[in-house]
Amino acid sequence: MGKLHTSQITLIVGLDENRVPEELTWSAEDGGIVNEDAKAMLLSVWDSKNQESLKIDLWTKDMPVDEMKVFFHQTLLAMSDTFMKATQDEKMTTTMKDFCAYFAEKLELKKD
Fold first, then answer.
1. Residue 10 CB contacts under 8 Å (≥ 6 apart), including other chains
2. What is residue 54's DSSP assignment?
3. pLDDT tens series, the chain, 112 aa
4. What is the pTM of this model?
5. Of the candidates 13, 25, 39, 86, which lies 20 to 30 Å from 33 by C-alpha distance?
């Protein structure tokens, strides 16, 4: 059996004296990303043993609310695409995308 290749994604969180995130950087060297700045991140992992989702949600204290709204909208759209790839459930994917459109409308997000 050949040697297994591994890939590492690294997140570094700079905290203030109250342990509130001030800086977020991430690296994914296989993707050519090294110490890139970010203002927010959402990470979910599936715990198969306990049949539950575990998550880490972080954003820096200088993350603007208007950008957070766009971040959530784009994340919801990406999750819809991922759901389609994982399940091939076109009906629910369409429902999810309809919600994303509603979400954008209610938040008055600009269309690209």
1. 26, 27, 28
2. E
3. 678 889 999 999 999 999 999 999 999 999 999 999 999 999 999 999 999 999 999 999 999 999 999 999 999 999 999 999 999 999 999 999 999 999 999 999 976 5
4. 0.86
5. 86
